[in-house]
Amino acid sequence: MSKSLNILSSIMKSVCVKSPGGVEQLYVDSLTIPIIRNSEVLIKVMSSGVNRMDIMQREGKYPVPPDASQILGVECSGVVEESLSDKFSKGDKVMALVSGGAYSQYVASPDAYCMKIPRKFSFMQAAGIPEVWITAYQLIHFIAEIKEGDNILIHAAASGVGCAAIQLAKLSKANHIIATSRSSGKLDYCKNLGATATITYDDENKFANKVNEITEGKGVDIILDPIGAAYFEENLSVCARDARWVVYGLMGGTQINLNISKLLFKGVSIRTSTLRSRPYEYKKYLIDQFMKTCMEKFEDGTLKASIDAIFPFEKVKEAHRYMETNRNTGKIILDFSDQV
Which of these, 86, 69, 87, 88, lies nearest to 78 by C-alpha position? Predict the structure, then answer.
């Protein structure tokens, strides 16, 4: 059974990509509003989050899952417009992790990927939760399997995922929570979120010596690494025995000359993950666990959604340019509220 939206117009505005390339390839088009199926809801989008994968998809460097919308955007907040779900009704305020299509006035989503917006949260705050927080939760708990007392190194710590990971590591009672960034100003913010130590790095000033100094030579049990090749040798040198090194991005390249004896000697496990391509049941369980652990913490203020900048959705090119400068601390949000 499926159901189309019962409104006079079946057309919505969406951000599309002409062909792989720079921001000039982005444009706003008029498309047909999605048709929902059983256990799905149609969300009238109020805000959407901008993520690094959106830029990579625009550039043709991110493979979109076969069943996903080609429209950019994987997280949003809004109001349920139509529902074929037992969990949500028309008018409910929700935030959602979607497989694509969030850069639109309307998006269809399985009800399992939707969450009630935390009390006192605005649509803009809520749009900054699903992708980065659920990704960070997956990395911390499912992939790295954090334990109380672990030392953790978080690269690109001022990113949306980094800001969430700092807070989740603190909630998990990690020992040293070490945040790295190329901006000292960003690291002040990371410290306010719960980082116990911060390191400013560049091509001349590496991080390994400082990490070993902070940990008194013990190294770190967990590395969250969205960089890849550029940090490989430094990361390997700070791994404690049996460290869990989680690679979830490749912003620093893909090719390395690897001497695996160092990995073998330390018993290091390199684990990798992307969330978007995970199957339905995995994401459903992950979201359920995230909600059980974190929703009350958002409502009581223990966990904070970090919003850096808000752009009207028609200025999506400016939003992408801003992310490409790496100036943001926390989330960049697209505002659709004036269009509904």
Answer: 88
